[in-house]
Amino acid sequence: MNRSTPDPEAVFRELYQATYDDLLLFAERRIHPALADDVVAETFLTAWRRLGDVPAPLDEARAWLFGVAHNVLRNRHRSENRHQGLVLRILREPDAVSGAEAEGVAARVDLVRAWQRLSPDEQQAITLTAFEGLTGAQAGRVLGISRPAFSLRLLRARRRLRRHLRSPHEAVALNRPPHPGTTTEIGTSA
């Protein structure tokens, strides 16, 4: 962004045009799409009021805006878990699928089950890096934690997701009583 321009409106307009779509996608992944525009509007209102606090490099400004949006979502207590969106997409799949398509649907179902077993903090760590494309330092700032703390959270989240993907039957067993003679590791700490 060009901060040499003394016109704050021009600086804000450039910031808005460069980041609006990313912020909208960020919000839509976490809240009902009908409410995402409100989250983005409130985020930009905060940016306008605190324009002097917005970092000059565009990638840093983008991360700063994600942090503001994260706080808006938390303060509104309306955020949705990412797994709800994934479950809805799976439910929209056609009933009749071929063998290869069935394997793909089964893999997505396993992923959804594994994803549902992650805590909201673990889900957030993965989405900030995988979907939003933030660095560890930027994601740490979004969550208000240090880069090493975020890296540790991300490492643990990835390990748990891999472990849950390797044991999909364990995830199913948590949702219904086990069959006689079947053992599960429900008491295993994550």
Sequence-ordered SSE layout with sheet pairings:
Layout: H1 8-28, H2 33-49, H3 58-76, H4 82-91, H5 99-116, H6 120-130, H7 136-143, H8 147-166, H9 168-175
Helix pairs in contact: 1-2, 1-3, 2-3, 3-7, 4-5, 5-8, 6-8, 7-8
Q: How does this structure look, described?
A:
The structure is a single chain. 69% of the residues lie in helices and 0% in strands. Residues 78-83 and 170-190 have low confidence and may be disordered. It is built from nine helices and no strands. The chain is mainly α and 190 residues long. Helix 1 (8-28) packs across helix 3 and helix 2 (33-49) packs across helix 3 (58-76).
Key attributes of the depicted protein:
mainly alpha, Rna Polymerase Sigma Factor, Chain: A, disordered C terminus, 190 residues, 2 domains, Arc Repressor Mutant, subunit A
Whole-angstrom Rg = 20 Å
Largest sheet, strands/sense/barrel? none
Level-1 CATH class name of the largest domain: Mainly Alpha
Beta-strand share of residues: under 5%
List the total number of helices.
Answer: 9
Q: What name does the CATH topology of the largest domain carry?
A: Arc Repressor Mutant, subunit A
Q: What is the fourth-level CATH superfamily of the largest domain? A: Winged helix-like DNA-binding domain superfamily/Winged helix DNA-binding domain
| Helix and strand run | HHHHHHHHH
Number of domains: 2
Strand elements, count = 0
Average per-residue pLDDT, rounded, comes to: 77
Family: Belongs to the sigma-70 factor family. ECF subfamily.
InterPro entries: RNA_pol_sigma-70-like, RNA_pol_sigma-70_dom, RNA_pol_sigma70_r2, RNA_pol_sigma70_r4_t2, RNA_pol_sigma_r2, RNA_pol_sigma_r3/r4-like, WH-like_DNA-bd_sf
Keywords: DNA-binding, Sigma factor, Transcription, Transcription regulation
Protein name: RNA polymerase sigma-70 factor (ECF subfamily)
